[in-house]
Every structure is written in C-alpha cells, then in structure tokens.
Design goal:
199 residues; 37% helix; 24% strand; alpha+beta; 10 strands
Length: 199
C-alpha cells in the first residue's frame, strides 16, 4: 500500500510542479524576488539564514528524509547536474544544493546521515515550523504533514517538487520543474549563471 501511495504521490507532485510552471519545463521569472529573512539550522546544527545564501547560486527544494522516491531521486539527479556544471564552472560558481526538510521532528535527528549518502557539499536545513513556512512561502512552495494512522506512527508529507533557483543576491530568479532531465537542467543553469539572469 505504501509503495502505491508513493507512486501516486510522485505523479501528483510532478503534475502539480509542471502546472505551477505554467506549462514551461524550466522558467525564469520576469522579476527577481528577494527572499524573506529566515533562520534555520543546517545538518551540522549551524545557523543557516539569508546571509548564508548570499554570494553564490543555490538550488532549494522541499522534502523530508523519510520520502520514499521524489527526494532521493531529485538529490541523485542534482548530483549529476553538479557534475555537468563542474565541466563549465569553478567550484565557487556551481550552485549549492539546499534540501529544505519540512518534517523537523523526524528530519532533524537524521539529516546529516541522510545527506551523507549523496554528496558532502549538500546542505540540509530544518528548524521551527514558522521559519520553515517563511522560506517555503518565499520560494513559492507548499507542503502539508499528514496525520498518523490509527495504531501507527507513520505519516506522509505532501510537498511541491519544483526546485527554486536563487541568485547570489538571495533572490528567487527561476524554477525547475519535475521530472528532471539532467542535460536540460545543466544547460538551463549554465546559461542562467553565465548571463546572470536570462538564457
């Protein structure tokens, strides 16, 4: 049953993400949108706020550590994107991958271990719900925690799967929709980074 629900969730999330993008696979916003002030903790329990987003590009996406499919697949594909961008840019110009974990009760204790399965430079952030909500709203995202079933502690988390692209001024400038095509996303980000905003 959980596998069926996971597949249904993936279809719903990917469909929602594409609809949110107005039919465009990857889109650049007409106007840059400054992100709001927020304060969360990374997987090493260090403060992660607006200042840490400044100075380099970042890719932020919403997820949770017990996600069975969308989140790990996204992290793996972004790893491939990172490798492609490494052929074009110096390490300081490659976007930081930021995993915004929206289920802090379950995510916080295992966030470092979870991200260690992917890439050591990935950043995972979580914290108080109101701070999570502030950043989620700032990147135009959505999530909802489910309720545990009777006699079970398990619950699912519904969330948008689109990836927010943030420039070195901590402004939201673009969105990448699911499902990810590594080559397509790499080319999109290459043009975006080289020209500052528009490909």
């Amino acid at each position: 049953m959980r596998i069926i629900w996971a597949l249904v969730s993936c279809l719903i999330l990917c469909g929602f993400s594409e609809a949110h993008g107005s039919g465009e696979k990857n889109r650049i916003f007409k106007d840059s949108r400054p992100l709001p002030e927020f304060s969360l903790l990374d997987q090493h329990r260090k403060t992660y706020d607006l200042d840490r987003l400044k100075g380099r590009w970042a890719l932020i996406f919403i997820g949770f550590t017990s996600c069975p499919d969308v989140c790990p697949v996204t992290l793996m594909k972004l790893e491939a994107v990172r490798a492609e961008l490494g052929l074009q840019f110096s390490p300081s110009r490659i976007p930081e991958i930021v995993f915004l974990a929206v289920d802090p009760q379950r995510d916080a204790p295992v966030l470092a271990e979870y991200l260690a399965h992917f890439h050591p430079d990935n950043v995972g952030i979580t914290g108080p719900t109101e701070q999570i909500d502030t950043l989620v709203s700032g990147i135009g995202g959505f999530y909802r925690l489910g309720k545990p079933g009777r006699g079970s502690a398990h619950y699912d988390v519904t969330h948008t799967a689109a990836i927010a692209v943030v420039n070195p001024k901590a402004e939201l400038v673009a969105e990448i929709s699911q499902p990810l095509d590594v080559q397509e996303v790499s080319e999109f980000l290459t043009h975006l980074i080289r020209r500052g905003k528009r490909p």
